[in-house]
Amino acid sequence: MQQHKAQKVSFDDELLILVDDADNVTGYENKLVAHRGSGLLHRAFSIFLFNANGEVLLHKRSDAKPLWPGFWTNSCCSHPRKGETYSEATRRRLHEELGVSAELGFLYQFRYSADFAGQGSENELCAVYAGTLDDQQELAPNVNEIADWCWVSCSALDAWLSDAPERFTPWFKLEWGRLRSDQQQALARLCRADVH
């Protein structure tokens, strides 16, 4: 496994895109302010990468993260910044966090909110994407963002979630539940993998 140099890629003052429930832009706010208290509704995205064996890539969030440090979550997740499209933001973040690129397909969008021990909140309109990582690319996780990572089969992940749900981020649990229910056909088509 390669490892990124410890490049800083997340900034408290980066401007996030505030939206309403219909994803209409209502303004911009820096990341720190957008996550204070109950949070301001903003755009976000989550990416699920699968390999040719149908395993999904998970990562453990760095202990330096202000919200949900040390929790396991999906392959990559972040926010579009002011002036970025979802496509631009997902491509940027895959490179920044994992050192890879992948063709992604949009699955669905949903709104959720979650409080982290009174220290801040996520209040997001989150777009969920999935894709397959070809075996020619080697992961190069950014240690400022990622403490650990693993490939896991869908059935093993189901069991892990059942046994230790407290180890996972709240958005991941919501997303995985939906991927395993009404997104099976989309996943099979996008990832060309056995995701049952």
Tell me about this structure.
- With 196 residues, the protein is of the alpha+beta class.
- It has a single domain (15-191), classed as Nucleoside Triphosphate Pyrophosphohydrolase (Alpha-Beta Complex).
- It is 23% helix and 32% strand.
- It is built from five helices and nine strands.
- The strands form three sheets. A four-stranded mixed β-sheet has the order 6-3-8-7, sandwiched between helices. It has a three-stranded antiparallel β-sheet with strand order 5-4-9. A two-stranded antiparallel sheet has the order 1-2.
- It is globular.
- The protein starts with 14 loop residues before the first strand and ends in a 5-residue tail after the last helix.
Describe, in short, the structure shown.
It is built from five helices and nine strands; from the N terminus they run ββαββββαβββααα. With 196 residues, the protein is an alpha+beta fold.
SSE topology string: EEHEEEEHEEEHHH
Number of domains: 1
Number of E strands: 9
Classification by helices and strands = alpha+beta
- Major β-sheet profile: 4 strands, mixed
Low-confidence stretches: none
What descriptors fit this protein?
single chain; 196 residues; alpha+beta; Nucleoside Triphosphate Pyrophosphohydrolase; 3-stranded antiparallel β-sheet; 5 helices
